[in-house]
Amino acid sequence: MLAAMQPQDGDDEQKFGPPVDFSFRDAHKMSDFTKATPRQGVHSYVTIPVTLPSIEPASSATPSGEKEQVADDDTKTKHVKYSSKAIRFSNNSISSFDGFATTLHAILQSTETLEWLDLSFNDLTKISEAILELSNLKVLYLHANVIDDMKQVDKLAGLPNLKTLTLHGNIIDGAKGYR
């Protein structure tokens, strides 16, 4: 399925790499992924270097107490964003969508092109409306979480392109009227 998402040779479109894989990173909250390195697969990631302003002050004190100016390049932090239509956050301990949008924007060059999101095997009980910002999402894996309310799943009706949704292994899969 992911192969069909890749531009064909000769297209002038943006090039996309394989799924960015943050599975098995022992993450407990979404922001943990911004500090983690994705797992390396067979295919190389397509990355875009970005320079972020550093949190460090632009000057520092010398041993004599005088302020010393630090070169502008030293106040920048090197960072990369990934060009991909798919991302895996599976097999972690995520229990909340807090920071979801911020994390995606920090990791991906473009969240608008995201088509495949794997949040399986986490501890999610609710589905955030922040996921509705991913209007091109086609595949969403939420299996093996702890979602227990169909109203949470009903939110996903706002994703116009969603074709594949997995929910097995959640508390709701035993509820009356689940299917």
Automatic annotation (TrEMBL):
Q: Which superkingdom, per the lineage? A: Eukaryota
Pfam families named in the record? LRR_8
**UniProt keyword Repeat, yes or no:** yes
Predominant location category: cytoplasm
Q: Where is this region: Disordered?
A: 1-22, 56-77
UniProt lists compositionally biased (Basic and acidic residues) regions at 65-77
Q: Where in the cell is it found?
A: Cytoplasm
Keywords attached to this Swiss-Prot or TrEMBL record, sorted alphabetically, are: Cytoplasm, Leucine-rich repeat, Repeat
Q: Which PANTHER family match?
A: LEUCINE-RICH REPEAT-CONTAINING PROTEIN 51 (PTHR46545)
Q: What is this protein called?
A: Leucine-rich repeat-containing protein 51
Source species of the chain: Phallusia mammillata
User: What taxonomic ancestry is recorded?
Assistant: Eukaryota, Metazoa, Chordata, Tunicata, Ascidiacea
